[in-house]
Amino acid sequence: xxxxxxxxxxxxxxxxxxxxxxxxxxxxxxxxxxxxxxxxxxxxxxxxxxxxxxxxxxxxxxxxxxxxxxxxxxxxxxxxxxxxxxxxxxxxxxxxxxxxxxxxxxxxxxxxxxxxxxxxxxxxxxxxxxxxxxxxxxxxxxxxxxxxxxxxxxxxxxxxxxxxxxxxxxxxxxxxxxxxxxxxxxxxxxxxxxxxxxxxxxxxxxxxxxxxxxxxxxxxxxxxxxxxxxxxxxxxxxxxxxxxxxxxxxxxxxxxxxxxx
Length: 261
Hints:
Lipocalin; 1 helix; mainly beta
């Protein structure tokens, strides 16, 4: 929460020093599917468990608001996304944790997973233009990851994680304007390694927007459809000595509306 507040204050202070920008708000409805694997070990297990075998299914959809602020050659994007996945499955690899507790391969399990993303991305025009524009920049994402895997064959044995991960990113933005249509690709990511713990994030947002309301040459309202993908790789040792290796990918469509002032 402190990190989110700091990022918001930074954005407001920066905007205040640059004058009043053009602002666009886009409430979007997002549905994500998940794939990948997870490995948890205290004793050197090397086989990861497939996340789909653990019972995780496509989420039921959620609201994903996005705010874009443009002034001059700069554009600031603030976005929030949340996805929840749960289900019952069968572990296809052993998870070892908590001072000798095991979820064995073949155990029936109940799995719950939540991912929240709060992003701030700043870009500036590298190749400005009325039809095609290309910009580069930087940003940060705060990834809130919660997961519980409980054995249904050995009650009381459960693996849990709850991590908030602030990750810096490099970013690029491409926009193509053709009549009432605008295509935009926003990509960001980075790989960091600190004291043997590593994190890699690759975030992609592809959107096609159709301008519905155009007053005096300024777009006031639009509808949009797009595709969002987010890849998260974590390899770290926690305070209990457990080695955790997570490799997850989230992707899916969204649609929404945009208002500009």
